[in-house]
User: Which sequence fits this backbone?
């Protein structure tokens, strides 16, 4: 079941060859070279992995959910392993991305890494497809786990869809075929508009025994709750277990904080949605979020639009107010800025308008607006950028009539929520926070 952190020999019916802990250097192919695993595909300026969940990529036409382990960005993720000697995955990107290089990380299991990898691009899920890369994986028979096949492209390609094909001959795949990670590095394309994700969702894991999550949206801001239901026909909010505050990123995925009401503990995470909106993937980051066992994953589905509300939180101002009251701080992921600037995007304003209305109801609250960045870029630049963004938010709130005591402080990358070790984790650290003084 999706979200259960089990090794391949426990989670799949395919026979598994013994794994080796040694890292094997593979002979370079014509267009690629092998090297120890890392989060970026090259040592030059870092680029975004546009094929990752954190960029909003989502599989289409898949009958199972194991595919997300191939693109979840967790350093020691087991990836995928399938029966037979052929595996195909089509990924939809939220916008037209420019891709400069590819990377493939060998399977944790010996003799499972494919002998041949192929990547095609298209503007539509139905093609026509153009080949971007087509080559052997050097030393696939003996390559150890965590070896990266890097493939810089001779010319950048633009794609809305990617098709990954892994293959070996029958004799070369006695234990099936698999890969730890697939990445496509370049410049992501932005979604045409703010993605609408409001509605009722159901997850088998991560959100109580009933697994129901209700999301409401205003601009890029998302608030909601997860709750226990009295049966499923009809679904009713019997008990609110916790709140959700988040925001839709430009890539179309949802960055969020899940706050459990009983324990008053918060956990950052993401949700990524299929192109048709019917399927959803969630990941919550526990502990240092650097290992597969510290990321709680679950695939879910959209039940549909809903007239249910989370009002049983008893908090005027919704989930933002609830989290401020319970934990003393809240991340406003829906407050988006232009790239590397302190200019508020239009989709951030509905979020801030709701915050302004909340603070007007609690004029005695003293609030610090904190700006935070990830670790990319220099310390001085990050500190200045985070300060400018915090000040932009504070000035907007004051202009909206907020008379509370507001201070703005930039922290740069000095207070990460999670380690800055992957694209998905760095995204969690880029945020604006309200802190109740």
Assistant:
């Amino acid at each position: 079941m999706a979200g259960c952190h089990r090794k391949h020999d426990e989670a799949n019916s395919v026979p598994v060859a013994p794994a080796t802990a040694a890292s094997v250097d593979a002979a370079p192919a014509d267009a690629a070279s092998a090297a120890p695993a890392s989060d970026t595909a090259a040592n030059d300026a870092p680029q975004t992995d546009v094929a990752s969940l954190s960029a909003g990529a989502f599989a289409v036409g898949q009958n199972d959910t194991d595919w997300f382990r191939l693109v979840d960005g967790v350093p020691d993720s087991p990836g995928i392993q399938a029966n037979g000697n052929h595996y195909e995955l089509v990924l939809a990107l939220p916008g037209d991305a420019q891709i400069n290089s590819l990377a493939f990380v060998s399977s944790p299991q010996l003799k499972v890494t494919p002998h041949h990898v192929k990547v095609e691009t298209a503007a539509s899920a139905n093609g026509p497809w153009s080949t971007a890369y087509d080559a052997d994986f050097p030393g696939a028979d003996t390559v150890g786990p965590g070896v990266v096949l890097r493939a810089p492209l001779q010319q950048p390609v633009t794609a809305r869809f990617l098709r990954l094909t892994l293959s070996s001959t029958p004799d070369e795949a006695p234990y099936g075929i698999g890969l730890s990670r697939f990445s496509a590095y370049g410049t992501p394309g932005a979604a045409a508009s703010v993605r609408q994700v409001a509605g009722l969702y159901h997850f088998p894991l991560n959100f109580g025994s009933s697994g129901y999550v209700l999301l409401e949206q205003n601009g890029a801001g998302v608030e909601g709750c997860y709750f226990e239901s009295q049966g499923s026909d009809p679904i009713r909010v019997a008990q609110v277990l916790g709140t959700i505050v988040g925001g839709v990123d430009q890539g179309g995925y949802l960055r969020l904080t899940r706050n459990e009401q009983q324990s008053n503990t918060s956990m950052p995470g993401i949700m990524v949605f299929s192109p048709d909106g019917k399927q959803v993937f969630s990941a919550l980051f526990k502990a240092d979020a650097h290992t597969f066992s510290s990321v709680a994953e679950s695939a879910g589905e959209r039940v549909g639009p809903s007239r249910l509300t989370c009002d049983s939180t008893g908090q005027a101002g919704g989930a933002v107010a609830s989290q401020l009251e319970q934990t003393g701080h809240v991340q406003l992921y829906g407050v988006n800025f232009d790239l590397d600037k302190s200019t508020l995007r239009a989709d951030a304003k509905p979020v801030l308008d709701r915050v302004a209305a909340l603070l007007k109801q609690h004029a005695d609250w003293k609030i610090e607006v904190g700006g935070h960045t990830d670790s990319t870029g220099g310390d001085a630049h990050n500190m200045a950028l985070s300060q400018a963004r915090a000040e932009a938010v504070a000035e907007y709130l004051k202009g909206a009539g907020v008379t509370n005591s507001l201070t703005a402080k930039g922290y740069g990358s000095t207070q990460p929520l999670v380690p800055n070790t992957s694209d998905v984790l760095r995204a969690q650290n880029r945020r604006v926070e309200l802190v109740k003084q």
In short: The helical segments are 8-11, 318-327, 349-361, 379-399, 423-429.
